[in-house]
Design goal:
14-stranded parallel β-sheet; 61 strands; twelve-stranded parallel β-sheet; 7% helix
Length: 723
């Protein structure tokens, strides 16, 4: 039956039903497929290619024409000879999706997307390079109601901001992109123009060695003013960016500077790494060269800031906030830092302030009359090696890790590890300071936090040392079994963290090392590296698990441990405890104690391991090479076989009878000298015992019934007297 006969019999309504049931009626599908060309000719549907068309573009005029006159989705490949000699503005008017692929060419000028009413606009594999003459190469997004994507691209050596986003509209996403060596008066890498509400995300990217060297509202890599959108940073590495301008009104932010964020704004940083960013370090009496990595200044009460899973290392500020300065206009409770590490950040305190510069973070309240300010929610963070320097005469610093200043007074600190930061007094490290780590208002809440000294005397925090948390050998700042990376493909790094040492206890079960292990409270479900926090929780950004090998009366004989990397830990060369360290839920392999730990215990032989301290035989489940899952901490004890002292009695010429028998005894154990038992010698009388077979006089100390201590293998010989 042909198509028209089928229609005449079944009718047009049946045709509609067959379309609806097309997946269930394969016989009708075959008929429809047979007549597809006829249906298309009658205009019932159009047959078209769903893929975007691809065109090669040879110059900027051709690129502009394709974009502004597009009638379908297009991929525009810039030819190798593509040469853009001047800035180019693209005003897309259609709703079609456009992709520009620059994998074959290098662009030395700026492209501005002036309009994009709908559809996506993608810049892929772009290579913007300002070159030796440092041209203003980059992308500006002025108007777009469709999403804009910048993927797999490079922006280098430009004399202006690499990526500028303005106004409202759909989100801009930058992914797997390198932004390096750009210089601008307002953020060398990214600028969110004044009053912009456009959401902006950068992820899996590297932002490196960008520079601001002018005064005003600026940042070395990124800047914004009165931003009221969502700025998201994920898995991105900010390194070596500098804000060297120093304005009287505002400056700083070696990597990021945000001024006067709006009530709907949000700064969300996750799984990223801020390394060696800095503000101007060479000037004095300028109080705005703050925030070695980040400045968020004058943000309002409802603005939101969240930092999670991020490491700040070696950032430096000329004045306050070695890593971060938070400055609020009102009472802001929407600022949180979780699962993050702050290591060796420095605030130089050269702005002639009150001496609360904050080696890692300063929180400043900027409105008179408010009792609050930035109420920081700090949960499961690690602060170590941060410092507030005193470079001015008679300056006394407080708070090597955290400080508050101005009208900022509150904070909630839970499961934070704050041990091991420092402050200076008159240019010298102040070892007697009562505020080495923190100088915040005493009304701040703290729970399960170590090192919260805060100017107090007689508190346990003053007795704890960083060595009790990180070990007596240098702790290594590094990958630490982490897998989460930040950066551009080929340039990415594992986000570094600091390992804590496992808990060691003495014979009375008192903690002697590892005070950050198993002493935390309820906090984050996962640690900074993404590992679940199982068992008893740890303090700080990192959660560990461990297998403790206890010498159980003996010792291990090992080479000196030169550093602690989060894998193996012990103290000294003859430790009594040895730790194999892993991540929660790791598979622990029982080590060969005899060959790997070289155990020793005088007059004892090592047999193996047991979970029972008093075991006489090793556990079969703990033989060398056996596996066990460790969520938190497992402890195994060395099993020893004692080498007992043999004591033997000799008849020494007896003619009948049997010598008394003494069981082998432990070293230095007391025994009672036995009588002759059934020994007899014809013509002689037993008169005692001697340690010499040839003597004729017994040893009075060995008279039967006397008690003696045994310290070696011993033989007692009967002494006989002729009748």
């Amino acid at each position: 039956m042909d198509f028209f006969n089928w229609i005449s019999i079944n009718g047009w309504n049946s045709l509609k039903e067959e379309f609806y049931m097309i997946g269930q009626k394969k016989n009708i599908v075959q008929k429809l497929l047979f007549s597809t060309s006829l249906l298309a000719g009658l205009g019932f549907f159009a047959v078209s290619d769903a893929q975007a068309s691809t065109e090669t573009v040879h110059d900027s005029a051709e690129l502009k024409s394709f974009v502004e006159n597009s009638t379908e989705d297009m991929t525009l490949i810039l030819a190798s000879e593509y040469d853009q000699t001047a800035a180019l503005t693209l005003s897309k008017t259609s709703s079609f999706n456009i992709e520009i692929d620059g994998s074959k060419s290098e662009i030395g000028q700026r492209i501005t997307l002036a309009s994009n009413p709908a559809g996506t606009f993608t810049f892929n594999n772009m290579d913007f390079n300002g070159g030796a003459v440092t041209r203003n190469a980059g992308i500006t997004i002025n108007g777009s109601e469709g999403e804009v994507f910048i993927n797999n691209s490079k922006f280098e050596n430009a004399s202006g901001t690499a990526i500028i986003s303005s106004g409202a509209g759909a989100k801009v996403t930058v992914d797997n992109t390198l932004i390096r060596g750009n210089k601008s008066a307002s953020g060398g890498a990214i600028k969110l123009n004044d009053n912009s509400t456009r959401n902006f995300t950068i992820k899996n990217s590297s932002v490196v060695n960008n520079l601001n060297d002018s005064s005003g509202y600026y940042g070395g890599a990124m800047s914004s003013k009165q931003y009221n959108g969502v700025f998201t940073i994920e898995n991105t590495h900010f390194k070596g960016n500098k804000a060297t301008g120093a304005g009287a009104v505002s400056a700083g932010g070696g990597a990021i500077y945000m001024y006067s964020n709006g009530a709907n704004s949000k700064l969300a940083i996750k799984n990223s790494y801020f390394e060696s960013n800095e503000t101007n370090l060479d000037v004095f009496d300028v109080q705005t060269i703050d925030g070695g990595a980040i400045v968020v200044r004058n943000h309002v009460s409802d603005a939101t800031i969240s930092i999670d899973g991020t490491t700040f290392y070696d950032n430096k500020a000329g004045d306050d906030g070695g890593a971060i300065l938070f400055e609020s206009l009102g009472i802001n409770k929407n600022t949180s830092i979780t699962n993050s590490t702050f290591y060796k950040n420095i605030a130089k305190g050269q702005g002639n302030d009150e001496g609360t510069s904050g080696g890692a973070i300063q929180m400043y309240g900027n409105r008179v009359g408010f009792s609050g300010g930035t109420e920081l929610q700090s949960l499961n963070n690690t602060f170590y090696g941060n410092g507030a320097l005193a470079k001015r005469p008679n300056q006394i610093q407080k708070g090597g890790a955290l400080t508050t200043s101005g009208f900022t007074r509150l904070g909630n600190y839970t499961n934070n590890l704050l041990l091991g930061n420092f402050v200076e007094k008159d240019g010298v490290i102040d070892l007697k300071s009562l505020s080495k780590n923190t100088s915040v208002n005493s009304s701040s809440k703290r729970l399960d936090t170590l090192g919260f000294d805060n100017g107090m005397t007689g508190v346990s925090e003053m007795l704890n040392t960083p060595q009790q948390a990180y070990g007596t050998v240098p702790v290594v700042f590094g990958a630490n079994k982490g897998k989460i990376k930040a950066g551009y493909s080929g340039d990415e790094v594992v986000i570094p963290t600091l390992p804590i040492i496992p808990k060691f206890v003495d014979a009375d079960d008192e903690v002697i090392a590892g005070i950050a292990n198993e002493t935390g409270g309820d906090g984050q479900e996962f640690d900074q590296r993404g590992y679940a926090r199982l068992g008893k929780k740890d303090v700080g950004a990192v959660e560990i698990a461990s297998t403790i090998y206890d010498a159980n009366g003996g010792q291990f004989n090992l080479p000196k441990l030169e550093e602690y990397t989060g894998t193996t830990y012990y103290e000294g060369t003859t430790p009594t405890q040895y730790a194999s360290v892993g991540t929660p839920g790791y598979m622990s392999t029982i080590i060969n104690g005899k060959t790997e730990l070289n155990p020793s215990y005088e007059r004892h032989t090592f047999l193996g391991w047991s979970k029972d301290k008093k075991a006489k035989l090793p556990d079969a489940a703990l033989k060398t090479g056996a596996k066990m899952i460790v969520d938190d901490q497992e402890k195994v004890y060395a099993v020893w076989k004692e080498e007992k002292m043999v004591v033997k009695y000799y008849g020494n010429g007896n003619t009948t009878g049997i010598e008394p028998v003494q069981a082998a005894v432990s070293y230095d154990k007391e025994i009672t000298i036995k009588d002759k038992a059934t020994l007899k010698k014809k013509g002689y009388t037993f008169i005692g015992w001697s340690t010499k077979a040839t003597t004729i006089k017994p040893d009075e100390k060995l008279a039967p019934g006397k008690k003696v201590k045994i310290t070696k293998k011993t033989g007692y010989y009967a002494v006989w007297k002729r009748n």
